[in-house]
Amino acid sequence: NSLLSLYKSLVKEINTIEKEINKLIEEVHPHYMSIPGIGPISSAVIYAEYGDISNFSNPGQMLAFAGIEPGINDSGTESHGGRMVKHGSSQLRYVNACLPLIRFDLTFATYYEKKRAEGKKHRVAITHVAKKLIRVIYALERQDVDFNAQKLR
Predict the structure, then answer these.
(1) How far is CA 16 from the centre of its chain?
(2) Phi, then psi, of 71 in degrees rounded to 5
(3) pTM value?
(4) How many CB atoms are closer than 10 A to CB 54?
(5) Around Cβ 136, how many Cβ atoms within 10 Å?
(6) Which has the closest alpha carbon to 54: 152, 127, 137, 132?
(7) 92 falls in which pLDDT band (50, 70, 90)?
């Protein structure tokens, strides 16, 4: 009984916090919330981590901040691209927002399938989708427009 009452109180607290998050994110109303599959909670996480997008001069800086850019291995005169670096925001690197994105938006789903057809594994293809998502977020916020799948390349 005590565990059940604790569970109920935690569920009530979670619901209260989610309502507050929804209210706050609606006040800010970032343009990337218009992307199908990006809800208020995902938007709040992105907004909390990045803050004001105008602090970044290009999408590459946003990728680096998230820790999704490839590492570079330098040796003498040679330079090779390596695996994804592990610095940056772990909340942004975690690609949970990309799974609903693939389900609800045909553009991102097609891009994911293209990467899978190229022989990429699931997690690598999801990372490519996350990179595309960050570039789209940058463009939406810089141009001050909502998401339009027809304008996406």
Answers:
(1) 24
(2) -75, 160
(3) 0.79
(4) 8
(5) 21
(6) 137
(7) low
